[in-house]
Amino acid sequence: MTVARAPALLLVGHGSRDGDGVAQFWQLANRLRALAPDLEIGCGFIEFASPSLNEAIDDLVAGGAESIVAVPLVLLGAGHLKDDGPVALVGGRARHAAVGFFYARDLGLHPSILAVAEERARSALSALPGPAPASAGGGTPGPPAAVVVVGRGSTDPDANADLYKAGRLLADRRRLAGPGELDEVVPAFVSLAPPSVGEALSRARRLGADRIAVVPYFLFTGILVDRIREEAADWAARHPGVSVTVGDELGPDVRIAALVLERYREALNGDARMNCDGCLYRTELPGYEHRLHAPLPGLRG
Predict the structure, then answer these.
(1) Residue 199 CB: number of other CB atoms within 10 A?
(2) Cβ distance 63 to 28 under 8 Å?
(3) 3-state secondary structure at position 119
(4) In 139-277, where does DSSP find H-type helix?
(5) Mind listing the domains of the chain with CATH numbers?
(6) Is residue 41 within 8 Å of 33, Cβ to Cβ?
(7) I need a surface site. Which of 6, 62, 233, 272 has the fewest CB within 10 A?
(8) pLDDT for 146-201, tens place per residue?
(9) pLDDT in tens, 1-16
């Protein structure tokens, strides 16, 4: 009796020119393999690192994979989710017509992601001068504190809006800064969209914070995370009355690896719901009407 082979999992990374960021990707891949030792797992990058997605797909097929589930390591669904991933799978289908391809949704605003982000925020707040932030339910109020959560930024308004939702979910009932404190969570972007890191820090200051923790809402470190640190340091140097610290990115946390497996199973069960209600390709959003029904960039021509 032949036992059916489970579909392979293709871990889709963005890639980075920063070696530390690429190393974090491989750390997450190793945690994923430890969680699912019997699952065939391939890894590829959209850009800036090797192997490419095409190479990763071809390697899985050469190893005997009869079907492949691609799981994008994307926090907020923008172009890499909606364009680059599908284009790679279209190419895979063209080269390997007998292989089945499935596409999972982005990691999204999952409780596991928010839990890791909350930990990074609390850790960053604890590094600020004054009383350490209290856990929910107790503690001594300190100087007013706030959190600035910084995403990559996108030309896709749906993805940018989701960062605001992440900030609201992090603020709601979590009391990051401790009882009686300001406890504001202010969103920002490091590229392509306002507000900038400096603008968000200024907003937190106007709201009354004199202790601000900046949290990169990124899976892995890299050039943009370095830029966040530089912009926060520049702002702090011009505002000596405010204490500013920058926390860590989310990183290769085991909870994120477990979420990758959850997205893999969703795709196989036919329950991979994309963020399509506000998708600029499907909805006539004000100011983005020209993107409605536009072909994917990699499939034009």
Answers:
(1) 15
(2) no
(3) helix
(4) 157-171, 197-206, 223-237, 254-268
(5) 8-107+253-299 (3.40.50.1400), 111-246 (3.40.50.1400)
(6) yes
(7) 62
(8) 999 999 999 888 899 999 999 998 988 677 766 555 578 999 999 999 999 999 99
(9) 455 689 999 999 999 9
